[in-house]
Amino acid sequence: MTPTKVNEIVIFMAVAEAGSFVRGGRSLGLTGSAASKAVARLEARLGVRLLHRNSRSVRVTEEGQALVGGGQRILDAIEQAEAAVAGPVGTPRGLLRLTVPDAFGRRMILPLVTRYLEAWPDVRVDMAFSDRTADIVAEGFDLAIRIGAETAPAGLMSRRIASYPVWLCAAPGYLAAQGTPSQAEALGRHDCILFRSGTLTQDWHAHDPDGRLHKLPVRGRLRMDSAHAIRDAALAGQGIALLPAFLIDEDIAQKRLVRVLPDLELGTLRIVALYPSRRLLEPRVRRFIDFLAEELGRR
């Protein structure tokens, strides 16, 4: 691919991201007219329309979206080549794309991302907050933070960065009205707020005194695909919830929620970083994983 072709793709991506020829061109030190002409040459060469234009803004077409994904892979390859030249102790720079669970990402990862950006001004971060299991490679992510992953899928590497206990909890008002269960078997007579992803509903498990894992008898009329929403429902007195300690420790301390069956051994949630298997991990990714492991390991 010639430098001219690469430059045209870079200009197109800047315009697509900015939604404007003027702003996109300015980000690259070009006039809006120069950016418009570069995109027009690219469209003519490819024989497709990449942008819908009007007097105020531009909108990426379906073909343009495909080129954005391919163009990002080109830029990633260039940055990876630069990282290889810089060596394993290279300075972090470039775009870091990560996907994180919604509640954990907002509460635990986002504050650390802020500090990481302050430490490394040449790094940019794109974050996706979702409890959906993203296809890391197909969707172009450098890194995914997952909760509860035991093994890495094919083609990915994993590193454990933290673990947190999980607790049963409920609002004081709910327990006052419905009673506090004194043993695990009593959970089946309570409203339990359950986590559901797609067609799968999370089972609740506990370890018996011999260390064997068994399923808890729970029922629930309310199912959600967001741990943060489950916490909100528990605070509203909708029932008993099973949630990680990092999400509810302040609520417990402030007595907004009460632990239920606190002696029950419910295990821990493993927090892992998943990333594409590569011979050389880019400094921006490697340093960020190290930073997460160090900071989360202290808590």
UniProtKB/TrEMBL annotation:
Any one Gene Ontology MF annotation carried by this entry is: sequence-specific DNA binding
This protein's record includes keyword DNA-binding: yes
Which terms under GO biological process does the entry name? DNA-templated transcription
Q: Which residues form the HTH lysR-type domain?
A: 4-61
Protein keywords: DNA-binding, Transcription, Transcription regulation
Spell out the InterPro entries in the cross-references. Answer: LysR-type_TF_proteobact-type, LysR_HTH_N, LysR_subst-bd, WH-like_DNA-bd_sf, WH_DNA-bd_sf
- Transmembrane regions listed in the UniProt entry: none
The UniProt family comment states: Belongs to the LysR transcriptional regulatory family.
Q: Which PANTHER family match?
A: HTH-TYPE TRANSCRIPTIONAL ACTIVATOR TTDR-RELATED, HTH-TYPE TRANSCRIPTIONAL REGULATOR
Q: What protein is this chain from?
A: DNA-binding transcriptional regulator, LysR family
